[in-house]
Each structure stands twice: as structure tokens, then as C-alpha cells.
Write a structure and sequence with these properties.
- The protein has 198 residues and is mostly helical.
- It has two domains: 111 residues, Rna Polymerase Sigma Factor, Chain: A (Orthogonal Bundle); 63 residues, Winged helix-like DNA-binding domain superfamily/Winged helix DNA-binding domain (Arc Repressor Mutant, subunit A).
- Helix content is 62%, strand content 0%.
- The protein is built from nine helices and no strands.
- Helix 3 packs across helix 4 and helix 8 packs across helix 9.
- The longest helix is centred in the middle third of the chain and has 24 residues.
- The relative contact order is 0.09.
Length: 198
């Protein structure tokens, strides 16, 4: 019988502490655990698979360079998503500046980017169609099991704003996944002269 790899049984926070102490293998395990999840989080925001893959790589590179600044008092996922969120915003702004179109409206567009194509199936695909901010809070809460406080930290929003977004996202998702049929028009019985109603 093969014993499981002890590194695979460690929590994210244990691995992050080891990576902070210099363990490259622990950091690689964290990257392996999160690369797909981070891609799913970033893809609707960035518009293409290639951009999302690049941003995942850039996020892990930044974290690797700054692993010594990781605070073990916080969840690793909070630190990861906060960094990814900031890099995505920075990337968006750089693209707008390069194209000469950075203005207040363009910067505000980052909050609700266009998302996946219509007609996609699945609950997460339906969630992507809600809009960027609502999708992000749903993903962080249910995909990553983060607390309201951790989500607020990651997105740079207040806890109240996160709660409101989460409420709206759940309502919107319910409408998409379980639409309530419109009430049937009440049929009226019209009395014709000389014909009894009944």
C-alpha cells in the first residue's frame, strides 16, 4: 500500500507557512491546488482564456516573490484572491491607458465586465451571466467557501456591500436557474345571449 504524499494532506495555511519559510515544493502544491479555481474566477473578468491563463501565472509569480509578506493569521485564499483582484484591475487600467481611453466610465466598467456567451449550461455558467461583481461574490462564497469578511477584504468592499451583492446574486441566479412561470391568463366565461353560464 502506498502512503499518501504528506504534503498533499496539509492545509493551505500550513503550506503557505512552509512556503514562507522557503519551501518551494509547498508553494508549488498551493499553485497546483488553486490554478484551475483562480482561472475560473478570472476568466469572465478578462474576456479570454489566454488572458485568464496569463493572469493566473502573473498572480502566482507575484505571490512567490512576496511569500514572505504572507500573514498566517489570514487564510491563504484571501491573500490569493486579493492579489488576483488587484492585478486584474491594474491590467485593465494599463490596457485602457495604452489605448488612450481611460475615463471614469471605462474604469467603472471593470466592476461588471461582459461575461460568457449566452446559452451555456450549468449553474456556474448561469452565475457568470449575472455580471462580474455578482459572479465574483458567488464564486468566492460558494466556490471558495470564503467568509463575508474575507470576500470584503479580497474585493476591497465593505461587508455590507458584499452582503447586498451576494443577496442580489442569489436572487438573480434563482431567477435564471428556476424561473417562475408567468401566471396563466384567467379564462373568462362569456355569457352568450340565451345560453346559460355553467
Amino acid at each position: 500500500m502506498v502512503d499518501p504524499d504528506p504534503i498533499a494532506t496539509k492545509t493551505d495555511e500550513e503550506l503557505a507557512r512552509e512556503a514562507r519559510a522557503g519551501s518551494r515544493r509547498s508553494f508549488e502544491e498551493l499553485a497546483q491546488r488553486y490554478k484551475r479555481r483562480l482561472f475560473v474566477y478570472l476568466r469572465p473578468r478578462l474576456g479570454s482564456d489566454q488572458d485568464a491563463e496569463d493572469m493566473v501565472q502573473e498572480t502566482f509569480l507575484k505571490l512567490f516573490r512576496n511569500i514572505r509578506s504572507y500573514d498566517p493569521a489570514f487564510r491563504f485564499s484571501t491573500w490569493l484572491y486579493t492579489s488576483a483582484n488587484r492585478l486584474a484591475i491594474s491590467s485593465y487600467r494599463k490596457k485602457k491607458i495604452a489605448s488612450g481611453r481611460l475615463d471614469v466610465e471605462a474604469a467603472g466598467a471593470l466592476a461588471d465586465p461582459e461575461v460568457g456567451a449566452a446559452g451555456e449550461a450549468g449553474i456556474w455558467d448561469a452565475a457568470r451571466n449575472l455580471g462580474g461583481s455578482q459572479y465574483r461574490v458567488l464564486w468566492l462564497r460558494y466556490g471558495e467557501d470564503m467568509t463575508i469578511e474575507a470576500i470584503a477584504t479580497s474585493l476591497g468592499k465593505s461587508r455590507l456591500a458584499v452582503r447586498v451583492l451576494l443577496h442580489r446574486a442569489r436572487k438573480g441566479l434563482m431567477k435564471r436557474v428556476c424561473p417562475v412561470p408567468a401566471p396563466a391568463a384567467a379564462t373568462k366565461t362569456v355569457a352568450v345571449k340565451g345560453t346559460p353560464l355553467g
